[in-house]
C-alpha cells in the first residue's frame, strides 16, 4: 500500500514537472500556427508564418546546421585523442589539463567571445567568416566531448584490453581503431549529442561574434522576436523544434543500437 502511494506521488510529481516544461512550448508552437495569437484558435490555423520565417531566415538555419556538423567533426577529431591521452598519461599535469578544460564552460560565453574578438578580431576576413563563430563553438563544446569520452574510457578497462591486443601483435593504430574507438563509442555518441545540441542552440558566444551575414538560428530567433510579430517568432521556434528533435532522437537511437551491439 505504501509503495503504491509512493509510486502515485512520484508519478504525479513527474507529470506536473513535464507539464510545467511542455505547456509553454506547446503554446509557442500553437502561436506560430494561428492566424492571430491574441484571438486564438478561432482565428484559424495557418502555415503563413512558417513560410515567412523560411523566406526571411532560411540562411540562418542552414548556417546553424553547417556550424553544428563542423563543430562535431572537429570535437571528435580533437576530443577523442585528447581523452585517450589524458587516460594514458600518468603525470600530474594531466589532471590540471582535465580541470582547465572546464574553463570555457565556467566562463560566461560573452567573456569568451570578447577574448576571441580581442585576439583575432583584427583579421578582417576571418572576423567576417562563419569560421570565426566555429572557433567559439568548438571552445565551448570540446569539454563536453572530452568528458563524455573520458568517463567511458575510464570504465571500459581499456589498458587491459590494449595489453591483450598488444600481446597478440596488434600495432598502436590497430589497437586505437580496433579496441579504443569501439569501446568508447557510447561516450562518443553521448558527446556528439551534447555538441550538436549545444552548437545549434548556442546564443551568447554567437551573438558577440556574428555579423549581419553570419546570423545563426538562435540569433535569428532573437531578432524575429524583437523586430517581427509574435507569430513569426513562434513559427521560428517551431522550425527549431522540428529540426532539433528528430536529430536528438536519431543520435539517442544510434547510442542504444551501439550499446546493444557491445
Overview of the structural elements:
- The protein is mainly α and 262 residues long.
- The protein has one domain: MetI-like (MetI-like fold).
- The chain is built from 13 helices and no strands.
- Helix 2 packs across helix 7 (130-155) and helix 12 (217-227) packs antiparallel against helix 13.
- It is globular.
Blueprint (SSEs and pairs):
Elements: H1 2-33, H2 48-88, H3 92-100, H4 103-106, H5 109-120, H6 124-127, H7 130-155, H8 158-167, H9 172-183, H10 185-201, H11 204-209, H12 217-227, H13 230-261
Helix pairs in contact: 1-13, 2-7, 2-10, 2-12, 2-13, 7-10, 8-9, 10-13, 12-13
> Over the alpha carbons, how many angstroms does the gyration radius reach?
23 Å
> What fraction of the residues are assigned to beta strands by DSSP?
under 5%
Fraction of residues in helices? over 70%
What is the CATH architecture descriptor? Orthogonal Bundle
* Main β-sheet description: none
Say how many strands there are.
Answer: 0
Overall mean pLDDT score? Answer: 83
* Uncertain segments: none
Name of the CATH class: Mainly Alpha
The named CATH superfamily? MetI-like
Q: How is the CATH topology named? A: MetI-like fold
The span between the termini is: 40 Å
Number of domains: 1
What's the helix count? 13
Amino acid at each position: 500500500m505504501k509503495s503504491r502511494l509512493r509510486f502515485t506521488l512520484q508519478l504525479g510529481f513527474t507529470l506536473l514537472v513535464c507539464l510545467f516544461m511542455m505547456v509553454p512550448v506547446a503554446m509557442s508552437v500553437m502561436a506560430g500556427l494561428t492566424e492571430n495569437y491574441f484571438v486564438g484558435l478561432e482565428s484559424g490555423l495557418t502555415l503563413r508564418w512558417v513560410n515567412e520565417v523560411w523566406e526571411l531566415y532560411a540562411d540562418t538555419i542552414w548556417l546553424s546546421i553547417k556550424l553544428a556538423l563542423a563543430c562535431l567533426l572537429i570535437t571528435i577529431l580533437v576530443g577523442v585523442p585528447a581523452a585517450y591521452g589524458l587516460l594514458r598519461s600518468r603525470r600530474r599535469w594531466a589532471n590540471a589539463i582535465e580541470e582547465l578544460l572546464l574553463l570555457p564552460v565556467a566562463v560566461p560565453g560573452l567573456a569568451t567571445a570578447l577574448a576571441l574578438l580581442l585576439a583575432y578580431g583584427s583579421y578582417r576576413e576571418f572576423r567576417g567568416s562563419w569560421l570565426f563563430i566555429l572557433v567559439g563553438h568548438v571552445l565551448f563544446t570540446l569539454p563536453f566531448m572530452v568528458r563524455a569520452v573520458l568517463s567511458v574510457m575510464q570504465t571500459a578497462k581499456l589498458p587491459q584490453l590494449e595489453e591483450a591486443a598488444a600481446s597478440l601483435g596488434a600495432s598502436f593504430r590497430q589497437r586505437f581503431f580496433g579496441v579504443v574507438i569501439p569501446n568508447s563509442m557510447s561516450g562518443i555518441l553521448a558527446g556528439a549529442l551534447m555538441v550538436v545540441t549545444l552548437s545549434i542552440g548556442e546564443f551568447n558566444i554567437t551573438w558577440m561574434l556574428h555579423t549581419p551575414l553570419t546570423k545563426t538560428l538562435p540569433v535569428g530567433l532573437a531578432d524575429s522576436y524583437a523586430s517581427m510579430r509574435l507569430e513569426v517568432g513562434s513559427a521560428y521556434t517551431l522550425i527549431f523544434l522540428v529540426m532539433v528533435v528528430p536529430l536528438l532522437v536519431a543520435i539517442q537511437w544510434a547510442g542504444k543500437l551501439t550499446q546493444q551491439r557491445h
